[in-house]
Specification:
alpha+beta, Nucleotidyltransferase, domain 5, nine-stranded mixed beta sheet
Length: 449
Amino acid sequence: MANASSAYPVSGFDDATVVVIDGRGAWEATSIWHGKGTELKLIDMVRWPNSIGLFYAQFTGWLGFERFQDEWKVMGLAPYGGPGVDLGSFISVSNGRYAVNSRLLLKTPDLFGIENGLGLSRKPDEPLLDRHRDVAWAVQDACERAELAVITRAISLTGSRNLCLAGGVALNSKANGLILSRGLVDRIFIQPAATDDGVAIGAALAAPVAAGLRCREMTKAYFGSRSTPEEIEAVLRTYKLSYQRLDDPAETAADLLARDQLIGWYQGREEFGPRALGNRSILADPRDVRNRDRVNNAVKFREDWRPFAPSALEEAGTSLFENYHTTPFMTLTFQVRPEKKAAIAAAVHVDGSARVQSVRRDQNERYYDLIKVFAAKTGVPAVLNTSFNLKGEPIVNSPFDAIRTFYTSGLDALILDRYLIAKTSTSNSQAATTTTGLGQLATEPLRCG
């Protein structure tokens, strides 16, 4: 219920099909709801352990990744495989329903049911083989078919072609993109923290929504802490760093990107949810496909097969991507138009797709301006965007985090709000000693009334 309440009240819809697909709740794995006006009514529910999330998580573990954490790695690996692995003994889909063989998936000892059918699981330090890639493809394919079946049935039950998704499986952007490409829905809303962290929104909204209050549409996810310019400058002085104060950070960043610099970009409030959305981001020029490897090898220190995302101007979406739909929270994957692949080559996955963030100026003024200026300089209305962190670490939260990550990676420059630190150029040196605070939490992220 908290998952469903985290999506529908802030979707901007007056009537919607609401589907929650998760690992598990208290006893639920999948639920279908109908949102109409201020009411949210439960229509159907599938009990755990008949769970798509469980299915995906167990195979994530078999592939050598962390269950309930690294499922997105399986999604990224899947396009490198192909058909050939039969998972019919683990999951089946028919007549708008799915059935997961939980007895095999939960067989003791752990993963024995999968190993009995597919062989020993991969250890995290072992190389990825073709059979692993093919299993990843089969897992993703099964997830997509199951999700499409559930949503098709849900729409038939509610009669609404506006769709809200929540739960961990709702972050499977590839499956979400297929929903649109198949023409199942007219509009789709997935809030930025659709998995367990997002139930905080649903819990907070339960009382006002039950009282009949309406909520504004959620169009932003910048609800976290921020640092004032004074706090940032204090940190720079404390560590005796050379820096330059910028009159126009967006112009400077766009110029650095156009000159093929890799930059750390830190501004405003931190994003809520797992995606960096232009406030705690690492940015690069998407035109040169080699930038994908530069960011992977010199900055992120992660597997070379994992893709990066483009942040694109909202008005340019239809010219870059097929079946485009606004996606401010990077929850949808589209096929890149063939004639545009070279323009954003470093942000295109091996299967020709891209997980997109659409950017409007009223959502993130400075980030929009950055992309707009970059487009004026290069003709490309998008930049490569990935989260500002090293492998295995959380997204940077404070100026200190950003500075430490900058100096322990291959980034060329760091822009902290209005301050530029560069490794290869001189800037004005300032020195002072003071302390910095942790910033203030957002006080008005959502409003009902």
